[in-house]
Design goal:
Elements: E1 2-8, H1 12-23, E2 28-32, E3 47-48, H2 62-68, E4 76-78, H3 80-85, H4 87-96, H5 99-113, H6 116-127, E5 133-134, E6 138-142, H7 145-158, E7 165-168, H8 170-176, E8 187-191, E9 195-197, H9 200-213, E10 217-220, E11 223-229, E12 232-237, E13 240-249, H10 255-259, E14 269-278, E15 289-292, E16 297-302, E17 305-309, E18 312-314, H11 324-336, E19 348-354, E20 361-364, E21 371-375, H12 381-396
Parallel strand pairs: 1-2, 1-13, 2-10, 4-18, 6-15, 13-21
Antiparallel strand pairs: 3-9, 5-9, 6-8, 7-8, 11-12, 12-13, 14-17, 14-19, 15-16, 16-17, 20-21
Length: about 425
């Protein structure tokens, strides 16, 4: 059987693309080695971040570099094999992180972010997934007066981008979250029009189930290779071959390796994150997700318990788990929230697909017809999946995309 479109990847991005195409009557097969929403789309902070109008540049201040270099930080850690392997991408990341470059990149990034909640809402309604959404925002916590004042300044400027917020004193934080010990904090910012998701993986599964209800197909197989075939594409898996007219690669951190044999050298690098759930009690119950901006962790109420999520670890995709970062984070977490019993015997970990210019790759491939890319969303694949699905569907069907996709084209990297 030959499908009209095969989408490789069943995370939030791939599922959203498949959903939008199927919603217009296109016959779609979604391929992934695991069920929808089982990788990084499951293991995240569970936030749809309307406030995320700024990218995350490489630290350029000497004091920040000195802080990170000893490799004991709670927010960012690295392993030398990954640093060496991705050294060229990291150098480009540093280059793209100049103030002038970041200002331009943020403006392009914002064209996607501004549509994140409205595009999620269409899919939430269709998938009957309202029970997974809490429109209560989330709280950004600060321990440093200087960093807090700067964050408040940026929050004020974000109003022009449609972002709503409220600055909170420690007393107001304590009133909102009485079980949290805020004595080491100086204040917070409540991002009002961002949304919490009580089970990120289940939201992706709900979208995937709705995709199937619309006539879409899902197959769980490992993709081994892709190649042009009779005006379309052949996808070889561990359980046979599949054929389609068009092919979309939305495989997150696995995308670059998959398309490299076709001549595409995309400077994607993975950043790993860890999380663990803890049992909820009357003494540690919280109402909002909170992110400690100084230590670098998130804590949020989930269906599985209170989820503690770390910052980032730069390591190879197949590297063994290293729980040192999570262990360090938990020492700080337990000072602000009484957590005792872990739900899982071992913490989860997964990798986010990052690009040196902090923008995803979205659009048509430049060396082959009927080949499309959608990956590299870094920490915001969960937030940006539905709007990415919308613009890819529009582009593939010859419509004017909701946003200008030129800044996100794979052509920007040239022949690496």
């Amino acid at each position: 059987m030959r499908y009209q479109v095969i989408v490789i990847g069943a995370g939030m991005v791939g599922t959203s693309i498949a959903w939008h195409l199927q919603n217009t009557g296109t016959q779609v097969l979604m391929l992934d080695k695991r069920p929808p929403g089982s990788e990084t789309s499951y293991g995240n902070a569970g936030l749809i971040q309307r406030e995320a109008i700024h990218t995350r540049p490489f630290p350029r201040q000497l004091v920040e570099l000195i802080r990170v270099l000893p490799n004991h930080s709670t927010d960012i850690r690295y392993r030398w094999p990954a640093v060496l392997r991705y050294r060229q991408a990291l150098l480009k990341y540093w280059q793209y992180s100049s103030p002038a470059e970041v200002s331009k990149i943020d403006q392009e990034w914002q064209t996607l972010i501004e549509h994140c909640t409205s595009e999620h809402q269409e899919m939430i309604t269709s998938a009957d997934a309202e029970h997974l959404i809490r429109r209560v925002g989330w709280i950004e916590l600060h321990r440093s007066e200087d960093k807090f004042n700067n964050a408040v300044k940026l929050a004020g400027e974000a109003v022009e981008q449609g972002v709503t917020h409220k600055v909170l004193t420690v007393a107001e934080l304590q009133e909102m979250e009485p079980n949290v010990d805020f004595k080491d904090y100086v204040g917070g910012i409540h991002w009002l029009n961002s949304w919490q998701v009580t089970n990120p993986g289940e939201l992706v599964k709900a979208y995937a189930k709705d995709f199937e209800a619309k006539g879409g197909a899902i197959a769980e197989h490992s993709v081994m290779a892709i190649e042009p075939f009779e005006g379309g594409w052949k996808v070889s898996t561990d359980d046979g071959d599949y054929y389609s007219d068009d092919l979309v690669v939305a495989a997150g951190p696995w995308s670059a390796d998959l398309i490299e044999p076709l001549g595409y050298k995309i400077p994607l690098f993975p950043m790993r994150g860890y999380h663990q759930h803890f049992e909820v009690t009357q003494k540690n119950m919280i109402n909002h997700s909170m992110i400690d901006m100084d230590i670098g962790f998130a804590m949020g109420p989930m269906q599985q318990g209170i989820r503690i999520t770390t910052g980032a670890e730069m390591t190879l995709m197949d590297a063994s788990k290293n729980f040192g970062q999570l262990t360090s984070v938990m020492k700080h977490v337990k000072k602000v929230l009484p957590l005792e019993n872990a739900v899982e015997s071992e913490a989860w970990c997964g990798s986010r697909p990052c690009m040196p210019d902090m923008k995803p790759v979205i659009g048509a491939a430049d060396k082959h017809e009927h080949l499309w890319f959608a990956f590299g969303h870094s920490f915001q694949g969960f937030t940006l999946g539905p709007v990415t699905g919308r613009v890819v569907q529009q582009l593939m069907q010859g419509q004017e995309p909701l946003v200008d996709l030129e800044p996100f084209s794979s052509k920007r990297f040239g022949d690496q």
